[in-house]
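A sample copied in:

***
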Amino acid sequence: MNVLICLCTCPDAASARTLATALVEERLAACVNQLPGLSSTYRWEGRVERAEEVLLMIKTTREHVGALTARVQALHPAELPEVIAVEAVGGLAPYLEWVVAETGPARPAACDLPHADHEDNEPDPMSPT
């Protein structure tokens, strides 16, 4: 399966929103869920720490995980951000296809598509008047 779910914790809603927006805008992720209220307990520099965090569930593809990880490292406020990729071993096929499509090359918007020229000098019926 080509679709991955990357888990990443953020220290606050603002950094989570910044990361989520950048990853989707840059087509490194099709969707990022932001789950606030996560309580984490971990060992850091020899001490047991506790923190309230926001968990990001990032839907991406195998070919984007390297660039996604690098982008998280660049934008994340932590010295060592958590990025763990888990393979989606199944799911609703149209949704998985959507993830692949939304992390692929950008398609032109409808307004960016070329329009046929009207040589008969009649008004374009699709054009607003």
Notes: The radius of gyration is 20 Å.
